[in-house]
Structures are given as C-alpha cells and as structure tokens.
Amino acid sequence: MDNISFISSEILKELPHVLESWWKIIVTVANQVNSGLFTNFVSSRVWSEVASGYVKSLGHGINIYSTWWTVPIILLFTVSLPLYLVHYRTQKRLRTITSNLPGPSTLPILSNVSAFTGCNFVQFFQELVEAINKYGPVVRFWKGDKLYVVLSNAESIETLLTNKALNKKNTFVSSIASSNGIVTSGDKWKNHRRIISSTFNSNVLDQFMGNFVENSSILTRKLKSLAGGCIVDIYPFVCACALDVMCEATMGTNVNSQMEGNGVFVKILLCAMEEVGETFKKPWTIEDWIHYGKKRNEKDKEICAKYFHGVVDKVIEDKLESHRNGFRQNRDGKQVEYLQWIRGKEMCLLDLLIQDAKLSLDDIRDELCTLIVTGTRVTALTCCYVLSLLGVYEEAQDRIFEEQKNIFGEDILRAATSSDLSSMKYLEQVIKETMRLYPPVPLLFREIEEDTQLENGYILPKDSCAVIFSYMTHRNSAYFSDPESFSPERFSGGSHPPYAYIPFGGGSRICVAYKYGMMEAKTILSAVLRAYRIRTPGGVTSLDRNLQAGVVLTPANGFSVQLFQRPVSMISNDS
Ligand code: HEM
C-alpha cells in the first residue's frame, strides 16, 4: 500500500515535468525528421508523415488533432508516462551523485543528444570547446542513460591516468582494424603491449633510422613537383610517407605507397582512417544512427577490408614460411639463417608477434592493422601541423633552418643520423609546442569501472565514461602563460604540472611508441625543411576555424601550404 502511495505521489510530482519533457522530445524528434537527419533511421513514410506533420503544425498552427495520426501519438504519450517513471527511479542514485556536475540542461531520454544533432563535425568541436569555456574544466553530458564527463584540468587527469584500475578504454572499431589487441584491456592488452613495447623500445630505435631517412627522402622528391607557390594539401603526401614507414617498421615490408601514389592499398587505408573518425566523431550523440545509415556502404567496406587484409595476410604468410624454413630474407634481399636473424637486429613487430605462441593468425593481423591505421595518421598529422605553423611563424622556420645548417654544414644532402636528431633541440621544441596547440589525439576515453572521487569533490560514477579533452588542457592559462600564442621557447626548460601536457597520453596507457613517433617526425620534418621553405597562406585562423575532433584532430579543409624549393636543395633530379 505504502509503495502504491509512494508511486502515485511520485507520478503527481513528476507529471508536469513528464508532460513538458515529452513535448520537447516530440518537437526535437520532429525537427530532426524534417531536417532529413533521420532519413535512414526513420525510413517508413508513415513515421515521416507523423513527425513532419507535427513540425508543420507547430509552425503553422494546423490542428493536429484533426488528422489520422493523432491515435498513435496519444498511444505513445500514454506509454511514455510509466516508462519515464521507471527510468526516473532506476536513474535516481546516478542523478543524485552527479547532481553537482556542471553541464548543459538535459532532456529526459534524449538527454543532451539534441544539443549536438544536426551540427557538422566542425560545429560539434566548437560546441565542445564552448561548453568547457562556459561550464569550466569538468562538464557532464548525458547520452540517454550514459554519462560522459569531459575533463580538462590537470589534477583530475592525473587522478584518472595514474589509477591502474581505470585503464579501460572506450574503443572504436573499423572494418579493417578491430578493437581486440592493444586497444583492449586486461591480460590480452598487457601481453600485446609487452610485445609492441619491445619493438619500439628506446634501446632499439636506431634500427629504424634507415627506414625513416629513405622514406623522407622519397617524400622530398615527391614534393618537388608541387614546389613553386601553388597551394597544395600536403597531408596525403606526408601520410603516404608515414604509411610506408609504418608498414616497414611493423611488417618489415615497404608497401611503396609513395611511389605508387594511386595504389589501392593507400586509398583503402585512408578510407579506413576516415571511417574510424566518422563512427567516433560524435561519441555521445548520434553514432548509433550514423552506424545505421552507414550500413548501406557495408558491402563496399567489406570489399576494402578484404583487400587490405589480403595484403597483410600475404606478408604474414611469407614470414611464416621463413620461420618454418629456417631462413628469411633481409632488407637487401639476401637469405639469412633463422638463427643468425633471431640474434640480429632486424626483428620487426610481425616477427615478434609470430614468435608468441599464444597469438592466432587473426590476432596478429588485427594488431598489425590497428597499428598501421593509428600510428600512420598521428605521425602524419603531427608533421603537417608543424609544417603549417612554420608557414605562419617564419622566424621559427628560419631558426630551424639555421639549426639544420649547423648540424649538416656543407653536406646538407647527408642522411640524418640518430645523433643528428638529438642535436635538433629547437625543432623538438617546435614539435612539442605544436602538439600543445594541436594535440593529434585530442580526446582520451576511459570507462569508469568504480565510483571515483576527483580531487575537486566531483564523483565519476561507475559505468560512466571520462573524456579527457587535452586540447583544452593544453590551452589553459593556469598551466601555460599566454596559452593561445605559438611559443616553442616555453619548452626550453619551463615547467608545467606533469598532466597539463599529455600529447602522448599518460600513465599505464601512454603511447607505446612516443619516442619512435618523435624520431620519425623529426626525420621527416628535417628532410622537408632542409629542402623547402613553407608558407601557409590562410594563416592559423583557417586552421582553427576548421578543426574537427574525432579519434584525431584534423582540419576539415586539409593542410593547405605553399612550398618553395631552397636554393641549396637536397633533392636529386632523378625523381
Ligand atoms: C607523434 C605521433 C603520436 C602521437 C601524438 C600519439 C599519441 C598517442 C596518445 C595520446 C595515446 C594514448 C591514448 C589513450 O590514452 O587513450 C597513444 C596510444 C597509443 N599509441 Fe600513439 N601516438 C603517436 C605515434 C604512435 C605511433 C607511430 C604508433 C605505432 C607504432 C603508436 C601507437 C600507439 C598505441 C598502440 C597506443 C595504445 C597504447 C595502449 O593503449 O596501451 N602511436 N598514442
């Protein structure tokens, strides 16, 4: 009896709220239908008519009750009331714990989805930035019953990244790379991370120099045809270079994407990168619906994935053959004895993965694909942001060129060595400052598996998801003076709280290849900047206006620069 009276008093208390929120939901859904967003989701003509009828009725004062679809609407309304009350009761604890978290007002059921639906990915990024500016460094968003807390203060980030119990990522899957290996958690992650770390461990990084130098030199030759002042998007060129480097490092095979620029392999890889971004860009809003819409392209994606996996599988099979025969081919094409090789330095990641008896063929292929797709893009983006900024801040570019001349002297054509890279102090500061302003991975996701108290008193409840927004942390004046300005010198010895600067993440899931990534970026940038002067006609505003955040931070309109060949060029004529 008590229960019944409790429920009825709850109903009475909540009734005005339910009525108001139901109406808001109807209006929001109807608007979305009318704007075509739901065309895949709500394909039935009846549904479209129902909802657009509502929109029309709202706008033009049509009497909605006189039309035939009033019956289903009333039915829906009646069903929604008890459903909403059940929802209200199950969410009570969560809502009480999180009631003090700042954030935009929410609609029941639709939560904050409506705040983001309909905006493109650039607008979405701007909305996110504005939310932090408005509500502060901790902002909550609801997507249905799922709570996302966006964090940008160094103290909360430290609490999260250093807590070993909180290292489960929210993963995103593409048709080429699944989320089974290094991006998962638990024992599988530990085992895969151990193997991958040994490949990119700082003691063995020198072995990659040949790979970096060779592919950077191909890049500078490819760019030659673009030099002379025309505006070009350098991203596809740098990406192809990073892809060749990555395939060589992980599989011991160069896929020659730079030399065969129209190759299917590169194109598919670029599509796969976009696809991961697409499914990710609106993580707490409409990704399920985007997935639904994308089902139409499922066949194409399957074909692409099949091709991509076919290339990778072929490389794996060749390697397995060498392992079985006791021989393998070294980089010069010579047959080397297996025992000699096992002690040698030429072990690529694939060799190590094959050696691990626990890994299946699918595991190996998955891991390779994940690394190729992720590692290629972030390194290419880092280089492109640096080049674009140097095209704006020409003094910094001059200073880098001076440094390069001091290191290479007369022999500006010489291949860089790892000791040259260590001497490129100013270039390193420029890369670090660029990654501060444009962190290639701007959002880190962590699934919260236990209630976690932050130092500022807020509680992240179990089953919520923390989103670390490093882009905003890096631009916080509490950690960096004059944070919007480009000032590489700040990395010449200045200090900031450790978790205020996290371009490679932090804690147990810090980037497994960050030293390798820095070396690769330095080698590529050194080669390009010794050969060309860069200018960025649109300035930083064109970059900033078009930023979009997904798995990675990219400008929607690419990286448009002008290249001018330097008088003393390292480019040979045999391109
Ligand atoms: C300069 C370029 C790079 C940047 C800025 C970068 C950034 C990052 C960041 C921020 C994370 C942490 C993600 C998180 O905590 O959720 C990460 C993780 C990771 N990165 Fe990098 N990365 C770079 C280069 C690379 C390269 C070249 C590879 C591949 C060889 C790579 C492989 C990985 C892997 C496998 C992880 C996951 C580690 C784990 O979860 O245990 N990264 N990277």
From TrEMBL:
List, alphabetically, the InterPro entries matched: Cyt_P450 (IPR001128), Cyt_P450_CS (IPR017972), Cyt_P450_E_grp-I (IPR002401), Cyt_P450_sf (IPR036396), Cytochrome_P450_Monoox (IPR050196)
Transmembrane segment boundaries:
67-86
Membrane topology per the entry is: Peripheral membrane protein
Compartment(s): Endoplasmic reticulum membrane; Microsome membrane
Q: Please list the GO terms describing molecular function.
A: heme binding; iron ion binding; monooxygenase activity; oxidoreductase activity, acting on paired donors, with incorporation or reduction of molecular oxygen
Going by the UniProt record, its keywords in alphabetical order are: Endoplasmic reticulum, Heme, Iron, Membrane, Metal-binding, Microsome, Monooxygenase, Oxidoreductase, Transmembrane, Transmembrane helix
Cofactor section: heme
Which Gene Ontology CC terms are recorded?
endoplasmic reticulum membrane
The residues that the entry says bind heme are 511
Family named by the database record? Belongs to the cytochrome P450 family.
Name of the featured protein: Cytochrome P450 4C1
> Whose protein is this, by species?
Zootermopsis nevadensis (Dampwood termite)
Higher taxonomy: Eukaryota, Metazoa, Ecdysozoa, Arthropoda, Hexapoda
